[in-house]
Amino acid sequence: PRPPDEADVVVVGGGVVGWSVAYWLKVLEGSFRRHGMKVLVVERDPTYSRASTVLSVGGIRQQFSLPENIQMSRFSASFLRDINVCGAGGEHLGVPNEPPIDIQFQPSGYLFLASPEDAAKLEATVQLQRGEGAQVALLSPTQLKEKFPWINTEDVAVASYGLEDEGWFDPWTLLNAFRRKATSLGVHNCHGEVRAFVTTANDPTSSAAESARIKYVHIYMPDSLEYQPVACSIVVNAAGAWAGKLLEADGLPRKLCQPPLPIQPRKRYVFCWHCPDGPGLSCPFLVDTSGAYFRREGIAGNYLGGMSPPEEEEPDPSDLSVDHDYFQEQLWPRLA
After folding, report:
1. CA-to-CA distance for 80 and 118, rounded, in angstroms?
2. Which pLDDT belongs to residue 57?
3. Looking at the domain 1-58+170-265, which fold is it?
4. Residues contacting 309, CB < 8 A, separation 6+
5. What pLDDT was estimated at residue 205?
6. Given Cys at both, which of 190, 211, 319, 333 links 3, Cβ 3.0 to 4.6 Å?
7. Contact 229, 216 (CB under 8 A)
8. Where is the FAD dependent oxidoreductase domain (predicted)?
9. Eight-class DSSP state of 330
């Protein structure tokens, strides 16, 4: 569908974050007994071929080092547990007369391994997590070997293991569940790209630029030079890895974008391999001291994982082809 002429809120980005924002706006609207808010979600790629949502490994964990992350993840776990509830206020994602949602959740704790140099830091982080209500155990190398005999515990000083509300699920199903529910609540959506803005600041170098408000977003249609101006009151930047790039669009006062938003795309490889003699159903979502990680993928001896490269070896994010040599030379030796 083409975008409307106006909307109260324009959400730029139709990944799981963008659709979640749209959904919660409508839920809160109903909670306050106010209706009529027009929310528009704009997504430039309906195939989601480059979207972080569907290219991720779909993990959920409580083991973070910031209280805000832990609190959000604990809420998310509770929300996903009741995902099919059809409350009067639309508090969850169930839609009347629609099939139930199965996000294919696989309960399995994250297992973080720490070297002697990082042991104290991991232990302090676990104390923080416990203070926020997360159920996390600390394991010595001996305890680790007893629970997971296949792990080589050499150079491992301590490990943290999530006891509940951790694992992985299908992010594509969750995205579609948010989209289906938000649409049922009246959220609009369109296929296009926001490339420019019109604000109240006529002169971007004037002091008025600091308090400028967005009046219009220009949504460019696919494979066309046409654009649709959409009058709006609020714009939500949910462009993910391209959130920083969005703030460089035409029409935004430069003062509003200084310093630049520190978000840039990063390319990562995710590999899937077959290992018939690997860990069984009790395999955790393991994160090695090097940052290498893997998890079980199904029950037929398949595994999925990856590892971030050193900062000086960051690959080009504009090309999403996979370097299979990276698996053979960097990841597999560590996993083996």
Report:
1. 32
2. 92
3. FAD/NAD(P)-binding domain (3.50.50)
4. 315, 326, 330
5. 55
6. 190
7. yes
8. 8-322
9. I
| AA letter at 97 | N
> Which secondary-structure segment (H or E) carries 30?
helix 16-31
Which residue is listed with tokens 């018939």?
A: 276
pLDDT in tens, 198-232: 998 755 555 566 678 899 999 999 888 889 999 99
> Closest Cα to residue 283, out of 266, 258, 300?
300
pLDDT tens string 58-72: 999 999 999 999 999
Q: To which residue do tokens 């999925």 refer? A: 304
Burial 254-290 (b: 16+ CB within 10 A, else e): ebbeeeeeebeeebebebebeeeeebeeebbbbbbbe
Domain ranges of the chain: 1-58+170-265, 266-335
The model's pTM: 0.91
- Strand ranges in the chain using DSSP code E only, listed in sequence order: 9-12, 39-43, 59-60, 106-107, 110-114, 136-139, 158-162, 167-168, 188-191, 193-199, 214-220, 227-231, 234-237, 271-274, 285-287, 293-296, 302-306
Q: Please list the ranges in the chain whose pLDDT falls under 70.
A: 33-34, 86-91, 202-210
CA-based nearest residue to 164, from 81, 75, 70, 62? 62
| Structure confidence at residue 282 (pLDDT) | 87
